[in-house]
Amino acid sequence: MNNFPNGPEEISLLEFISKYQYLKSTDTKYFFSTQKYYKKRISNLVSKKYLRRIKSNLVLDELGIEFAELFNFEYNKLNRNVKYLPRLLYISHLAAFYHKCNNVKFIPSFDMKEKQEYTTTSRKFIGALGINGIEYLIYYLTEEHTDKYLRLIIYDIQKEKKYKNIIILTNDENRIKTSDFTFGMNQVLVVQDTEENREKLKYLHSINWYNVIKEIYKRSNIYLSDYNFCEYTDYKNKFINTFYFFDTEKVNRINYFLKENKDKNADIVCNSQVKERLEKELPNCNYNIIDLEKYIDKEPFYYD
After folding, report:
1. If you write DSSP's letter for every residue of 127-179 in order, what string do you get?
2. Which single residue of 68, 78, 88, 152 has CA 20 to 30 Å from 256?
3. What is the maximum span of the chain, computed from C-alpha positions, in angstroms?
4. Distance, first Cα to last Cα, the chain
């Protein structure tokens, strides 16, 4: 029994690697409730031959594969294609980050129905995020990706029929031009790929915008809008949009409204980080900067 994995956290880790093939050593922290001894626990699983190291990544070893088969874990044979490895590692990284999150569900691209219609290499999305039950198709773009890859992402979104919400995780925001990423979707969110922003995505639908608007427009009669170019309005001269992340579709709708109504302007409620980019696209809008983190309800949302 001393050779058996120690408790549900280690078993959960083995089950995860069985499915995702690889796990960065630095991502093992997401599987343990206490950070004090988890590195020692990983080393113990390696010494017992449940796991083995390939450079800075962990994969199943002999006993790990046997354990996965014994407990009927979803098992994917190790893909050794060097060109495909960065994609696999990023999918694993994102899945590990949201592994214990109650209100976010990550579905990797290889589990999605679309793979029956297109090969993995022809579709560039890496998966989908369900955030409080609202689904987003996920892409990622780095400075290592070529301009051709960027064009393939654009083409991929253009032909997307099922998903109406998109998230693009990137460490190179400047490559994503609003005019190229306007498709008539509900949302196309451009998110700088940092741990802080991945954490913020958990609360994308947990902001109490009613309280935010009430705080800013204390003495005004503001209502939920029937217009498609703003979210709140007084149906006179205030047309208010809210931003938690930069949204190319929303920017495009505001721009269109302003071009068609030269005598009107728009209000934007956002945090200081988003304002920096929004001002380049919508320089003449009225900005209300607010710390949105204070208005987030972090009570967990549970799926049925």
Report:
1. EEEEETTEEEEEEEE-TTS-HHHHHHHHHHHHT--S--EEEEEES-GGG--GG
2. 152
3. 76
4. 36
